[in-house]
Amino acid sequence: MTQNLEIQEFVIAIAVKQQNPTVLTADFLKYSGIVPNEWELARPPILTNAAAQVVYQNGVSIVAEVNRVVFSELIGTKEAQELSIPAIARKYIETLTQVSYQAISLNFRGYVMFDQNNNTPRNYIFGNLLKQGPWQEFGTAPVQAGLRFIYTLQETQLFLDINEVGLQLPDKTLLPAILFSANFSHQVAQEDLNQRLNDLIQIIGNWQSDLETYKQVINTKFLTAPSYQVNIAPNEPLIFPR
Description:
The protein is α+β, with helices and mostly antiparallel strands. It is built from five helices and nine strands, in the order βαββββαβαβββαα. Helix 2 (85-95) runs antiparallel to helix 4 (193-205).
């Protein structure tokens, strides 16, 4: 592989000790200044005792559960400076300072699509990342594989998952692809409230450093095999597997 990865989604997940999810409403987000007034909802919000979700037309979603709050954004054609959730997540924790935040992870999801009949995700995984063996010859269908790599970095751990997926385009065309999912797990101070909030703000402020690390690892360590040529997905809406 020689092309670069096309990143499609950015997620900021903050673990909390315990919170009341019902605080997350569209009105609260707007009137507290967490989201701009002009943002329009993509669909009616969900609000239960266990979870709440608010989704906007620009691809931003905010979910609150008892033990975490998750900010996600579809990237598409957006440049890094156009992404909204770093500022949204920071404003959220600066507004709800009483929540017992425990840890934070920055997550990126990107795809590489294949357009040649003999150049499939399975060929890439079994031809580049796994050793041939009898374990591949079992069952009534070709075996599928999902891999996890755990990298210890200076200030974080990177959990990198690689999976073969089928990616559905808006016209219902199903394309074979490799999904690279990265989770940068960061710890924050637990004893001192002010230090904990400062840690969260600093980690969110440095999100582009994790993004560059993600791109560097994928592009230089996984997408360099000369025997595999792929086409990166065009910047158009995709239906993400969940």
